[in-house]
Structures are given as C-alpha cells and as structure tokens.
Design brief:
This protein has a domain at 11-137: Nucleoside Triphosphate Pyrophosphohydrolase (Alpha-Beta Complex). It contains four helices and 13 strands. The chain has helices at residues 11-16, 73-85, 138-143, 171-183; strands at residues 24-34, 41-48, 59-60, 63-65, 93-97, 101-102, 108-116, 130-137, 145-152, 155-164, 167-170, 184-186, 193-195. The strands form three sheets. Strands 1, 2, 3, 4, 5, 6, 7 and 8 form an eight-stranded mixed beta sheet that branches. A three-stranded antiparallel beta sheet has the order 9-10-11. It is globular.
C-alpha cells in the first residue's frame, strides 16, 4: 500500500476493521537528489496504477504498513521504496524523520523519513502498484501550492494541494510535502541536503 489519503473505500468499514483509537503504523520514504554539482533538489514520488482498488492514480511517496519483521519504521520505509521503485536501501542516506501524519478515516499514522539519494538511479517500478516514478524539482513543487476543489465518491471538498504540471499532490502526501519544505535545508556551498 503506497498512498494514505482520504477518503477510503468505506470510512465505516475502515473504522470497523480496527479497535477504537487504534492507529496502524506505516512509513514512507521521501527520496531527494541534487541534479548536477550545485543544482536544486528533486523530489521522487510515485503515481499509483489507475486500475488499483484503492487510491488509484494518486501521487504518493513509496511506503506502506510496517511488517512484523521490520525492526523499526525506517526499515519499513526503505523496504517499501526498494519494493515499489527499485531504490536500493544502501543507496539511501537517511537525513531524518518528519513529524508523523495521521489519515483521518483509514486510521494510519504515517512516519515520513527523508533520504538523500544519488542522481541517476534507474527506477524499476513495481508492476503491481506503480504506474510511474516521478522526479519533480522541489522549487516547482513549492511554487505549486494551492487550494483546490475535489470530489471523491460523490463528496465535494476543498483541500490544500500542490500542482506541478499534470501532477496533483493532495491528502497525506501533500501534508508530508509541506513538512518537508519547512524543514529541508540545501547547502549553497556544497549542495548537501539536511533537515532543520
């Protein structure tokens, strides 16, 4: 499972599937790389396949539910990124963790981890889940912040979002992007990425 956005298939069914107040731990990886020696950071996201039952076609970070074998949630984020987009774990330099984000209706608490990766990785998207791997300049993402009206399952609502070209980032993914933009630092001298 890669995206954790509202609304779920059925809020009542999702709530019934867990104990009252229970949150399901999950993790995502926000991979970043710098193009060229002193270029701007690019953010790596996925577009989920359009034929999936849940969150079809949505833009998301690679990630998912914690497996029992994962010693901690950073391992979950790295494992999911490797499974979903072919990002080797050893290629990721973890910069830190952002504050967790809850999904209101589905009961997930998402722990976002930020990782610096080398430029030029050959993506291998999972045929089961991922339609495309998307590399977006962080400056364009920042400039694309907006409010937008949406409709899902017959419910109209207004939400914060980021629009970059044809890509609409909303829900939990947009909230994580906002946290990332607030905390990411890019060294002007050495081009190094860090979190404040």
């Amino acid at each position: 499972m890669s995206a954790f956005t509202w609304p779920p298939d059925s809020p009542l069914a999702a709530a019934a599937a867990r104990a009252p107040g229970e949150e399901i731990p999950a993790a995502v990886l926000a991979p970043l790389f710098v193009r060229g020696e002193s270029g701007d950071p690019l953010l790596v996201l996925t577009r989920r396949r359009a034929d999936l039952r849940r969150h079809a076609g949505e833009i998301a970070f690679p990630g998912g539910r914690r497996d029992a074998e994962d010693p901690d949630l950073s391992v979950t984020a790295l494992r999911e990124a490797e499974e979903e987009i072919g990002l080797p774990r050893e290629a990721v330099q973890l910069l830190g963790e952002l504050p967790s984000v809850s999904t209101f209706a589905t009961g997930y608490v998402i722990h976002p981890f930020v990782g610096a990766i080398p430029e030029g990785i050959a993506w291998r998207p999972s045929a089961r889940e991922v339609d495309a791997v998307i590399e977006l300049p962080l400056d364009e993402v920042r400039a694309g912040r907006t409010r937008t009206k949406m409709e899902r399952r017959g419910i109209s609502f207004e939400t914060d979002a980021y629009v970059v070209g044809e890509h609409l980032i909303w829900g939990a993914t947009a909230r994580i992007v906002e946290l990332l933009i607030e905390r990411l630092r890019h060294g002007a001298e050495d081009g190094a990425l860090s979190l404040a």
